[in-house]
Amino acid sequence: MKLICCLYLLLVWEYVSAFKFTDDMAKQCKGFIRKTDKTFNTFYKVDAENIRKLKSDSAIDFEMRFAVMAPSGACILLSKGESKELAYVIAIGANKNTEANIIMSIRDEYKNTTFMKNLLSSVEYRAFNIKQYKDGTIAVAREGDRTPIIVYKDPTPIKINYFSFANWNVDEVNYYFDCPKPPAIGNGTNSVTEIRKYHKSIRSYWALTHNVLSDSEFRYFNIKIYKDGPIVLSREGRSEPILYIVDDNPISVKYFSFDTSNNVEAQFLYGCSDKNETGKIVVEGQYVPEKKCKKFLRQRDSNAFIKAEDIKVNNQYENVSFEMNFAILAAQDAHLVLLTMPNYDGPIYDLRIGTDSNQKTELRRGYENISGEFAWTPYILSETKYKKFYTKIYKDGTIELGMEGSLRPILNFTDTKAVPVNFFSFCAGSSMDAEFRYDCPKLDLDDTTE
């Protein structure tokens, strides 16, 4: 089934990044501690009644709010008992204030890392919140910001009964904790569009869409839901979607409704059509645009080299020298190799998707990792469904890799010693089988089974 719903207005949540933790807010926090060592030696019992008051969503099991002043290295332990035996460690401002981590303390196993500079400050308090959802998801966010800094879903979640604080590689970290929920700020800034499932307040899919709505004119949108899971949201008449997601456990959509947040008044027109017909559910075929792609299957190493010039560059910008859309069916570790010559002897770029057990994507030149050019991409590949990607090479040496339909690339790197790309090839590592479809059309919102 494919549901098509054309509408003139879409709910957009506020996105606030200018939150300031004030002295008045500090006075409302129940606790304060100054840590000068990296030992979790003081454990605080979770106040169940306080959690109940704080909870912003019925799907949340645990929620805490706190503020930190430190140059780097703030560590928060969330544990089942008064020890590190079964616990999560949240590290904020780690690695000289350049990243955030979620770690399972029992094995010091890093579960997720986000690279973000200047999360902490040595001259002012920065406020954060941590939420644990009933499905095992842990989300850490800056206060006043709806987009989490870092998220991890634990398949066997730990019941959080205690918390503790420490510092790492700094002389002193100051914490205010058990802080109240801050007041709502404003009526929204018209800057973010998102898709949520089951009304969870954690954003699973979102995009920056500045001024996507207007209070002086109607804006025209459409939503399409395909029976194999894809959901496509777009501005009418535009080729690139706002959001494109694939739900591995899709909901059977039988009803729809409209609403606004923060008491904003809005007008919705629906059932729209170019032919001025009434709105209706349209049942069409399975969404498989990759059927239009050329097919290429190879296990591990590949000796099939395709000329880059055979792929037509269909881009409106003259600074793009090579562009290709491709799809991958693999459990993990799929490679797109960009080459100067039709062999592996010359300079190459190796785009490795879903490495480290389908947790990471990286860019290498030759067989040496280009420093810092990787991203954490948990479960980016699937062995049951094609995942669609694009790559672009710009004339200034920039290489870009992204998921089709996403407004943000996975990797974007400018090589100051760029090498020409004349050929490309695919292969799968780790003794895995993979299927690649390439030279695919761009995402077509009306594409159905041929």
List keywords for this structure.
450 residues, mainly beta, Jelly Rolls, six-stranded antiparallel β-sheet, 4 helices, 30 strands, disordered C terminus
Structure description:
The protein has 4 helices and 30 strands. It is globular and about 65 Å long. A 6-stranded antiparallel β-sheet has the order 2-13-4-9-10-11, with no helix packed on it. A 6-stranded antiparallel β-sheet has the order 3-12-5-6-7-8. With 450 residues, it is mainly β. Among the domains are: 155 residues, Sandwich (Jelly Rolls); 149 residues, Jelly Rolls (Sandwich). The N terminus and C terminus are likely disordered. InterPro entries: Methyltransf_FA. Keywords: Signal. It comes from Leptosia nina.
- Write down the CATH topology of the domain at 23-177: Jelly Rolls
**Tertiary shape:** globular
CATH C-level of the domain at 23-177? Mainly Beta
The value of Rg in angstroms is 24 Å
Secondary-structure arrangement, i.e. CATH architecture of the domain at 23-177: Sandwich
Given helix and strand content, the structural type is mainly beta
DSSP strand count: 30
Q: Describe the main β-sheet briefly.
A: 6 strands, antiparallel
Span between termini: 16 Å
Indicate the proportion of strand residues: 35-45%
- Unreliable runs: 1-17, 184-188, 274-290, 444-450
Q: How many separate helices?
A: 4
* Helix content range: under 10%
Keywords: Signal
Signal peptide: 1-18
Protein name: Farnesoic acid O-methyl transferase domain-containing protein
Domain Farnesoic acid O-methyl transferase: 48-180, 185-273, 305-441
